[in-house]
């Protein structure tokens, strides 16, 4: 099994040429992020990816307001299931043109009822089936898969459903490291398509610095869960696995009072995590 490590679009410069150059300079295999709305930018990104032999995972954020400068990723209460599906369909329709490995989607709404979730995911999986484009559903706060138990029930309802596993969100939602839900972690690992390797802890979805000794327990726990995913993927016969270290500013990184200065460097941590997981994977292999 081969490991591909991607970097997040959100941790780099907005200029596409500079984004790709930074990605190459620091040894990443590709980029995970949204497909640009602008046709010219789409073509530019696709060409840069092809020319530099970089892979791409297309990110779909549904039911939100992209024009909101503050909370653009949060689902809006007035957005219907059809609205969410329309957002997902747009990304699916463009993903193959972009040469994407698959679509990873932050979708749904934590306030939906069980029946609304069943309706949405059933129709989303039908979109996947008819398009032939793999869709991987992310475990994320504010979204349908914001906790282990709803996720478990939806996975049982839909045997073909695949996951982008970002367990950092569940740590803060559950207010504990989630080894307590080991049977659910095993089920998630059996359906895992992709790993977003942020480290969370009981009070926040992102530790300030995973290299710090005070966060050793949280780092070790997450790596235990990621190794479980690798093992289940190997059993399933997957030829490659993908990871994306997603450490962010934007409220994720703790800051000093009054100055709002970040307490650590996000890109430095991202590169450290990428190197660490490459070594772990080599040793695991």
Automatic annotation (TrEMBL):
It comes from Adonisia turfae CCMR0081. Pfam families: AP_endonuc_2. It comes from the Bacteria. GO terms for molecular function: isomerase activity. SUPFAM superfamilies: Xylose isomerase-like. The keyword Transmembrane does not apply. The keyword Nucleus does not apply. InterPro entries: Xyl_isomerase-like_sf (IPR036237), Xyl_isomerase-like_TIM-brl (IPR013022). Keywords: Isomerase. This is Sugar phosphate isomerase/epimerase. Residues 26-197 form the Xylose isomerase-like TIM barrel domain.
């Amino acid at each position: 099994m081969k490991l591909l490590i991607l970097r997040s679009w959100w941790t780099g410069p907005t200029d596409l040429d500079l984004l790709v150059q930074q990605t190459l300079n620091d040894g990443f295999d590709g980029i995970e992020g949204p497909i640009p709305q602008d046709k010219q930018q789409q073509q530019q990104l696709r060409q840069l990816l092809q020319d530099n032999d970089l892979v791409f995972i297309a990110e779909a954020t549904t039911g939100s307001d992209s024009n909101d400068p503050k909370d653009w990723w949060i689902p809006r209460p007035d957005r219907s299931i059809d609205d969410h599906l329309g957002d997902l369909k747009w990304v699916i329709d463009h993903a193959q043109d972009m040469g994407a490995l698959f679509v990873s989607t932050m979708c749904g709404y934590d306030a939906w009822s069980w029946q609304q979730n069943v309706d949405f995911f059933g129709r989303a999986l039908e979109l996947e089936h008819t398009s032939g484009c793999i869709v991987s559903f992310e475990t994320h706060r504010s979204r349908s898969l914001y906790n282990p138990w709803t996720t478990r029930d939806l996975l049982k309802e839909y045997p073909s459903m695949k996951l982008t596993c970002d367990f950092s969100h569940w740590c803060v939602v559950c207010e504990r490291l989630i080894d307590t839900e080991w049977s659910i972690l095993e089920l998630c690992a059996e359906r895992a398509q992709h790993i977003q390797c942020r480290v969370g802890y009981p009070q926040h979805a992102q530790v300030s610095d995973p290299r710090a000794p005070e966060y050793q327990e949280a780092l070790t726990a997450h790596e235990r869960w990621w190794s479980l995913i690798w093992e289940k993927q190997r059993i399933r016969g997957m030829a490659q696995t993908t990871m994306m270290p997603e450490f962010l500013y934007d409220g994720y990184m703790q800051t000093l009072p009054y100055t709002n200065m970040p307490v650590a460097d996000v890109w430095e941590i991202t590169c450290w995590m990428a190197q660490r997981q490459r070594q772990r994977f080599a040793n695991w292999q």
